[in-house]
Amino acid sequence: MLAEVLRRLLATIPVMGVVALAVFALLHVTPGDPAVIIAGDYATTDDIARIRTRLGLDQPFHTQVAIWLGRVVRGDLGTSIFSGLPVSTLIGQRAATTIWLTLFAMLISVGVGVPIGVVAAWRKGSWLDRAVMVFAVSGFSMPTFWLGFILVYVFAITAGWLPVQGYAPLAGGVGSFLSHLILPALTLSVVYMALIARMTRASMLGVLDEDYIRTAFAKGLAPSGVLVRHALKNASLPIVTIIGIGFALLIGGAVVTESVFALPGLGRLTVDAIVRRDYPVIQGVLLVVSGAYVMINLIVDVLYVVLDPRIRY
Amino acid sequence: MSSTSSSIPAFATEALSTTPRRVAWRRVLRRQPTLAIGLVVLLLIVAAGVLAPVWWTGDSQQMRPAERLRPPSAVRWFGSDHFGRDVYTRTLYGARVSLVVGASVALLSLALGTTLGLVIGFYRRLDAVMMRVMDGLMAIPAILLALALMAMMRASVRNVIIALVIPEIPRVVRVVRASVLSLREHTMVEAARALGVRTPRILVRYILPALVAPLLVQATYVCASAILFEAYLSFLGAGTPPHIPSWGNIMAEGKTYVQLAFWIILFPGLFLALTVLAINLVGDGLRDLLKIRG
Question: What pLDDT is stored for residue B292 in this prediction?
Answer without folding.
Answer: 43
